[in-house]
Amino acid sequence: MKITDYSIALHNVHLYAYHGVLEQERSVGAWFTINIRLFLDDCSCAYSDSIDETVSYADVYDVVVKEMEKPSLLLENVCKRILEVLFDRFGGVSAVEIDMKKDTPPMGGDRLSSAVTLRAER
Q: What values do phi and psi take at 47, rounded to 5?
């Protein structure tokens, strides 16, 4: 058997943050939901059972939390920052896809959300 694709993901990371074009969004804040998938070059951890040969979910979560704490006007900017840190910190990552949703944007719709998705490759 040959493992041909390997990725790790965090789904439905739910964080309160202060992003938005409107001043009120940056002062009052809102809930955001983030899904992120990291594609890795090597899956030797599946054979060795060693955390040292992969990327820890907890470390990815810490990066997301830290970058979400920095207010931005645009979700695209927050996503770009998260992508940059992940590539800088984890050398074995070949691509990352991040989907960030503002759970209740100030547009007056019932059950409305807005989202952006960015994918980057090394």
A: -95, -40
What is the value of pTM for the model shown? Answer: 0.90
38 near 90, Cβ under 8 Å? yes
The residue with tokens 């997301």 is 64
Could you tell me the CA-to-CA distances from 49 to 21, 27, 53, 54, 89 in Å, in that order? 45, 45, 8, 10, 21
Residue in the block written with tokens 């599946």: 46
Dump the DSSP string for the chain.
------EEEEEEEEEEE---SSHHHHHH-EEEEEEEEEEES--THHHH--GGGS--HHHHHHHHHHHHTS--S-HHHHHHHHHHHHHHH-TTEEEEEEEEEESS-TT--TT--EEEEEEEE-
Query: Which tens digits make up the pLDDT trace of 26-58?
Result: 899 999 999 999 999 988 888 888 888 889 999
d(CA 74, CA 115): 11
